[in-house]
Amino acid sequence: AAAAGEFRPHPAKPQETAFLQYTSGSTGQPKGVILTHANLLANIRAMGEEVRASSTDIFVSWLPLYHDMGLIGAWLGSLYYGMALVLMSPLAFLTRPGRWLWTIHRHRGTITAGPNFAYELCNSKIAESRLEGLDLGSLRLAFNGAEPVSANTVRRFSERFARYGLKAHAMAPVYGLAEAAVGLAFPPLGRPPLIDRIVRESFITRGRAIPAGSDDHGALEFVACGRPLPGYQVRIVDTAGRELPEREEGRLEFQGPSATSGYLRNPAATRRLFDGEWLDSGDLAYIAAGDIYLTSRSKDVIIRGGRNIYPHELEEAAGDIPGIRKGCVAVFGSSDPDTATERVIVVAETREEEPASRDALQTRIREIATDLLGMPPEEVILAPPHTVLKTSSGEIRRAAVRELFETGQIGRHARAVWWQLVHLTLVSWRPRLRSLWRMLSDAAYAAYAHVIYRLLAPTVWLLVTLLPRASWRWEVIRRGARLMLRLLRIPLSVDGLEHLPRQQPCVIVANHASYLDGMMLVATLPVEPAFVAKAELADGFVARRFLESIGTVFVERFDKLRGVDDARGLVQS
Asked: Lowest mean pLDDT: which of 21-25, 145-149, 354-358, 478-482?
């Protein structure tokens, strides 16, 4: 659009933005991930080092170049390592999936990649007669990523195409995300896919991935998506940001040289992305023996009756029903305004129009859902083809399908473009209003808590500092703490008090998680403890007078010699 002029080459610097990579939008609005030249080169080098890429490799890809796996992994990766790239049209693959495999055969491809649905298409849409003479023996890596990896798909693909030369270790489930450029975790070279079978009940109720026995036919299965690439770190944390041990599900956070600096013109989303130096992937996972097992997107998990419901498993099972379009099933939670609980909604595409056949399909979906979830879904909707929306990599856009459901748009013909634009504008304001309401609610609660504290604290302080007996002082503190928790509607549950020795000295060590810790301990402990506090608290009259009245022992934190003396005195007392 600019006027004609002389070309001036731009000497790019490592920290300059190379391009913006938009997230898939599977759980909300796409966001522009800022990637620098240094980010891209770091990720390409890490992936290449892990798979020992070289100019002798041949990459066969049908992935579109607007998708990160196709753009960075296939195109830029091939350019960097000087390997041949055989590029197909995505439509050529989608119309005839067998072309992908025959292109690998014809060009003796060594590396290829695709989302899970691509391998499933090869399982279900290619007749055996069209595979005669196929040789996949040259293929050393077939990356499976960009969407949840199905244990059944991996198992069936590996078993079916083993007779056509596919090596057992060629299938490589991987994990990555736009915020890390593309790749984050790869499996070790030469290792067949790992499938972890875990006890269903303990996982959906407590988030613990306990290995299941071979006779447990209801076990959940998750596929190992590899280990962090060289130079990258991954951890699993709970909702409070505390790191979890192995085999406990939580949010996956990461660090690495290709981690983005944030989202373009979206400071609110950028703040949510970062947890200190760590970046929140938005995925739920657990780690076992160093391998990452992805379980779901955190926003996609449905919580009902204290149980976590993972949509992907039911979507896959419903897609296997004859008459239901495979890969075109969306399971999501929709809030019930009357009960304030989440309803489980299933939307499945079908071409069946006969009422009896549709009733049979709905009944079958309910039966499968009850078997998997232990409860039937509230609603099963059979929709026409192309109702279930997807991302460019084939991921189900559950949030968008939920929006269609809640606005009564499922199955309706598309409205005029002008109406869609007006609707989009109105919908875009809804999250902002919700956010404003949450902010106002939080501010109101904080003000209320502040008032309650200001009313109770002076009375408790005065009584504690004036009452002559220690037992009376502790009773006042205990009752004051419990009253404040009750007025603030903060629930308090206590387990294990019977293990607290009453007739001998002991030390209680508590993690300092918040300013409520002391109040919780006072409200909970049936004994009269002596608190240990930092010496700085003795500087102010109000705090010192109160703490001295309950026998607090002050210790020095910065002067090492005084700190040692204080510790010795504490032990002797």
From this structure: 21-25
Instruction: Spell 191-224 as b/e; 16+ CB within 10 A means b.
Output: eebbbbbbbbeebbeebbbeebeeeeeebbbbbb
573/557 Cα distance (integer angstroms): 19
Residue 22, phi then psi, degrees to nearest 5: -80, 135
Distance (Å, rounded) from C-alpha 170 to C-alpha 139?
A: 7
| Whether 344 contacts 372, CB under 8 Å | no
Distance of alpha carbon 229 from alpha carbon 234, whole angstroms: 10
The span from the CA of 208 to the CA of 196, in Å, is 13
Contacts of 293 (CB under 8 A, 6+ apart): 196, 209, 222, 223, 224, 225, 285, 286, 287
Q: What percentage of residues in the chain have a pLDDT greater than 70?
A: 94
* SS3 annotation, 82-133: CCEEEECCHHHHHHCCHHHHHHHHHHCCCEEEECHHHHHHHHHHCCHHHHCC
The answer to whether 88 and 61 have CB atoms below 8 angstroms apart is: yes
> Residue 164 is encoded by which pair of tokens?
């056509």
DSSP 286-351: EEETTEEEEEEETTT-EEETTEEE-HHHHHHHHHTSTTEEEEEEEEEEEEETTTTEEEEEEEEEE-
- Give the number of other CB atoms < 10 A from CB of residue 566: 18
User: Distance (Å, rounded) from C-alpha 84 to C-alpha 109?
Assistant: 9
- Nearest Cα neighbor of 320 from 119, 118, 120 is 120
- Bridge partners, residue 275, by sequence: 278
Q: Which two tokens stand for residue 372?
A: 């998997």
For 217, the 3-state DSSP assignment is coil
Could you report the per-residue pLDDT of 102-136, keeping only the tens digit for each? 999 999 999 999 999 899 999 999 999 999 999 99
Q: What percent of the chain has pLDDT over 90?
A: 54
pLDDT of residue 77: 97
Asked if pLDDT for residue 333 goes beyond 70, the answer is yes
Tens digits of residue pLDDT in 480-529: 999 999 999 888 888 888 888 877 888 888 877 787 888 888 888 888 88
Round to whole Å and give the CA distance between 187 and 142: 12
Q: Which two tokens stand for residue 519?
A: 């109040």
Q: What is the DSSP string of 359-371?
A: HHHHHHHHHHHHH
